[in-house]
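During the reporting period the student researcher (J.K.) took over the structure-prediction task from the postdoctoral fellow and processed the backlog of single-chain submissions. One of the processed entries is reproduced below for the supervisory committee.
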Amino acid sequence: QVQLVESGGGLVQAGGSLRLSCAASGRTFSSYVMGWFRQAPGKEREFVARINWTSRSIYYSESMKGRFTISRDNAKNTVYLQMNSLKVEDTATYYCAAVNQAKLAYGSGTAMTSYDYWGQGTQVTVSS
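J.K. obtained the following structure tokens:
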């Protein structure tokens, strides 16, 4: 079992930055692929970014590439999402998710259904 707790959300003006954190329980964090998703009101949850256990394989949603950076610190059991140049349309609840690398295998890790564990989410609100 893996428990995930997100933090770092809040209210920020357009053009600003936030760094989200996701702390994971368990001693096998380094064997998990970690992903970030987001869900805006009235919309489906969408993929943001994901990172494999070595940090050598990283995917981003095209719409966020260049503004968002995913990273992880396996010693701290934490994955991060640095969000820069935030836009009003980035307003959403942001969720982190985890799946064992062995289970994901060569999957892209961009689909919600790929993940077994989810955090409770952290709200990000970007004002104009």
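The committee noted the following: The mean pLDDT is 94.
J.K. will present the remaining backlog at the next meeting.
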